[in-house]
Design goal:
The chain is of the alpha+beta class. Helices cover about 50% and strands about 20% of the residues. The protein has helices at about 1-25, 30-50, 50-75, 75-80, 95; strands at about 105, 115-120, 120-130, 140-145, 150-155.
Length: about 160
């Protein structure tokens, strides 16, 4: 009966360890229970069967943890659990569509490379081309790259 208990504890510890490692990362209940199961299994082996069987149980525990980890990494299970979808949606920014190169506005916040500017009543996130621009400074749209509006000081 004690041997069955040891086998069950080691198997449960391995399953909880794999769940902790790949499904619920971080230190959580699964990791703590896995550690408790393996520690108790080895303690029980040493206390009931003696040093020889305890050392064998310890070696089998370590080898089975390493073997289960290698097996799980090589199996297709990780591929089945992984996310395969690409997010293709974008945020619709209707105010940005009205902005053209050469439009002028006023910086509403300090542009420490990124900030906000007011273009004809539309407050839009903008990026400075090279320098810091203080709030309430007139700015001009220099270019638009991938939806990012790059501005510079008006001269």
């Amino acid at each position: 009966m004690d041997i069955i208990l040891l086998i069950v504890l080691v198997v449960v510890a391995i399953l909880l360890f794999l769940a902790e490692l790949f499904i619920v990362p971080g230190i959580s209940i699964a990791g703590i229970l896995s550690g408790c199961c393996i520690i108790y299994a080895n303690y029980h082996a040493f206390s009931v069967f003696g040093t020889t069987i305890g050392c064998i149980t310890l070696l089998v525990s370590v080898a089975s943890f390493i073997g289960a980890l290698v097996w799980f990494m090589r199996s297709k299970t990780l591929d089945k659990l992984s996310l395969k979808e690409n997010i293709t949606s974008t945020v619709k920014r209707s105010a940005d569509e009205n902005i053209q190169v050469g439009d002028t506005g006023i910086a509403t916040t300090r542009l420490a490379l990124i900030g906000y500017a007011d273009f004809a009543g539309n407050i839009i996130e903008v990026k400075s081309t090279a320098e810091f621009i203080d709030a309430k400074t007139p700015v001009k749209v220099a270019r638009i790259v991938d939806g990012i509006i790059l501005v510079e000081k008006c001269e």
